[in-house]
Amino acid sequence: MRVSANENWAMAEQRFAAFWAREVIDRPLLQMAVQHEGQWLHLCESFPVTYIQRGGLPVMMGCRQTEESGTFWTHSIPVELASLHLAVARNAPVFQRMTADILEAATAMAGRGLVSFPATMGNVGDTLAIIRGYENLLVDLATDPERVAEKEREVTACWKNLYDFFHALTQPHIPGSVTQWLPLYHRGRCALIEADFIAMLSPRQVEQLYLPEIIARVEHVERSFFHLDGPNGARHLDMLLDISRLDGIQWEPGAGTASQNRLQWLSLLKRIQHRGKCLWVACHIDEIETMLSELSPNGLVLAILDCDTLETARSLERLARRYTSGHRSHR
Predict the structure, then answer these.
(1) What are the distances in angstroms from CA 279 to CA 217, 229, 239, 248, 260?
(2) Domain annotation covers residue 15
(3) Same domain, 13 and 85
(4) N or C, fewer C-beta in 10 Å, the chain?
(5) Structural domain of residue 315, as residue ranges?
(6) Same domain, 226 and 319
(7) Global pTM?
């Protein structure tokens, strides 16, 4: 595949292949984009992605969506859980519009970058919470957990069908795939699994009702990442690390935490790597040297948040190579 915005994409593809295999060529993956002479340069393993924001599975299942100041808001369906019919009508205007958006983006991005499926295409737990309303779903979990499990299975079935359809739609124009809004590339089928709703639940509820749906999605693709959000979500980390087919974790400290200091989460990041999982982590320039010294380069992506010059990017790349060489010499 060609990505014109990254002049070293051929090498980047090789590094992504090594990354998924938990191997390293000469350094961990780095993702940085800088403005240089009036244009954006995507460096190392960075690449441009067109994100499809409109629509998503809840909307295709009947939720009303409105836009305000560039943000799309999705509204719940005012019916009882037992009365919900969770299906996607492919002749519905919302589905036709989303299909047209994805096809138009794939055609426009061919040879330039990638296209992401909608961020809200069908998160585990979150989709049904949006459709029912979060408070209503929490009551459902207390009063009718079997029905919730049934509806979650229906959501997963729809997710699988949509993933297959949209993936096939983009392949003639952009071979391979990206893990939705997380910029990880794979030559085959990959997906980002999200389940922010589980932060509200006990480990027992997650294990009984939501873990099977997470596993079903992981097993539907070749490569998969899980978006783990905040300390309450981290309570379920070991359960996720036990999923053998899950490739990696993207850790997000979460709103309201000391998210600007990612170094405080090093022990958690090391736990993820210790269990043989890949890791994607965002960090600032003043954090990268500690990240490089404390974490294994194997299966690691560091996304640099505040790199703003080409010279800084090149120096960070040299730093990453130096630490990788030192890591190998002490193995």
Answers:
(1) 19, 14, 16, 6, 18
(2) yes
(3) no
(4) C
(5) 1-47+282-331
(6) no
(7) 0.92
Question: Which of these three, 209, 234, 252, is where a domain ends?
Answer: 252
- Euclidean distance between CA atoms 149 and 153, whole angstroms: 6
List of residues 6+ apart from 302 with CB closer than 8 A: 28, 29, 30, 31, 281, 282, 283, 288, 291, 292, 320
**H-only helix segments in 171-306:** 203-205, 211-218, 230-234, 237-241, 266-274, 285-294
Question: Are 18 and 300 in contact, with CB atoms under 8 Å apart?
Answer: no
Is 198 within 8 Å of 213 (Cβ atoms)?
no
- Of 5, 1, 38, nearest to 16 by C-alpha is 1
Q: Tell me the helix, strand and coil percentages in the chain, rounded to 5.
A: 45, 20, 35
Q: Is residue 274 part of a domain?
A: no
Same domain for 187 and 164:
yes
Q: Are residues 89 and 107 in the same domain?
A: yes
Residues 158 and 202 in one domain: yes
Same domain, 28 and 63: no
| Alpha carbon distance 288, 294 (integer Å) | 10
C-beta separation of 63 from 130 below 8 A: yes
Pairwise CA distance, residues 89 & 85, whole Å: 11
Per-residue pLDDT of the chain (331 residues; tens, 9 = 90+): 788 889 999 999 999 999 999 999 999 999 999 988 888 899 999 999 998 866 678 888 888 888 888 787 889 998 999 999 899 888 888 889 889 999 999 999 999 999 987 766 779 999 999 999 999 999 999 999 999 999 999 999 999 999 999 999 999 999 999 988 899 999 999 999 999 999 999 999 999 999 999 999 999 999 999 999 888 889 999 999 999 999 999 998 876 555 557 888 999 999 999 999 999 999 999 999 999 999 999 999 999 999 989 999 999 999 999 999 877 544 4
